[in-house]
Amino acid sequence: MSDDGDEPVPIGVKLGSTRTVIALPDGDDMEIIRTLTCLATYEDALTGEERVLYGDQAATEYPDRAQFMLRSGLPEDDDRAELTKKFFDALIEENDVPENSVVVYAIPTIDNEQGLANLQAVIEDSPIGQEHVESYPESLCGAIPAMGDGLEAINEIFVSVNMGSTNLEASAYRRGEQLAPFATGAVTGNEVDRTITNHVEEETQGRVNIDKTTAREYKEEHADFVDFEPFTDVIQQPGGGSHEFTIERSVMDACNEYLDEAVDEVANSFLPELANDYMKVYQLALDQPIVLTGGMACIPGIVDEFEERLSEELNRDVEAVSAENPDTAATIGAQRIAAKLSED
Ligand SMILES: Nc1ncnc2c1ncn2[C@@H]1O[C@H](COP(=O)(O)OP(=O)(O)OP(=O)(O)O)[C@@H](O)[C@H]1O
Ligand SMILES: [Mg+2]
After folding, report:
1. pTM exceeds 0.85
2. Ligand 1, from 14, 15, 19, 141: best to mutate by most atoms within 8 Å of Cβ?
3. Is pLDDT of 33 > 50?
């Protein structure tokens, strides 16, 4: 495919600490590229050259070596920035993401100038986005597909809560302007995974130790606030034989603790700050549905449960909504902004 003379393609990008998601139009459809944000290198057995593997393949084939370079959320130092660049360039090359493009990428609301500058460099120095590159907050991008088929969210006043792997973020938006940004690293998907690991050890009377990846998979496959079903798994024991066990409580205990803490942060840290700085906006925003975005918002039933617990905590009725797929919502929203920018 030749890029010359064609219209630039509008592309949305989110480089997350757990997963990276890219969205680009494919005829009338949207192509979604979704992969684990990790990288493994190995030496070509014939030529001795360094080869790069990324994503699920790297995690599965090289579990001993795969590096999640954004584990803390952003590429904070030069080494991580270099790894992130390698990862992103390999991803783009393998998927033929077009260079002649307008790229909008979602950025976390974290006070980390160096990390954000490194992320910016990774995207801007990559082959894509030759026409234009711009960033928007992840919690704004993620709210866009939750609020309509177009860019309705950009004209509204509302609160968005982004439930990610390394941070819980909350902001109010006033026609796209971010107000009272809040973030905490204390209530996170990663913490849920650690808690599941500990609970599983207790629930099995010390017989089963799972790693963080397995805990994340249990959560992603089984967590459900509406109808959770106990599930069984098998571990191979050292010295042979296997041990089958059933998990009844560990996953949902961890998720319930998470949700209580998330509601507490929103009700007792973020919202009081917002009310303090922008009383009127606070009142207007709480009359609108609160948008939940990010991977943790994918757990079935979490939106209704958040709505109920937050209403109780605030002693007033609030509504909550999310996009159909909260984990890819930020990328979809970024893509819609890119499409609008490339029109103008
Ligand atoms: N279907 C699912 N069910 C439960 N949890 C999920 C699901 N999909 C993703 N998650 C969890 O959501 C988290 C990742 O969310 P997201 O992709 O929004 O984070 P991120 O942007 O990479 O992280 P951060 O912004 O915090 O750095 C992980 O903890 C992941 O396990
Ligand atoms: Mg995120």
Report:
1. yes
2. 19
3. yes
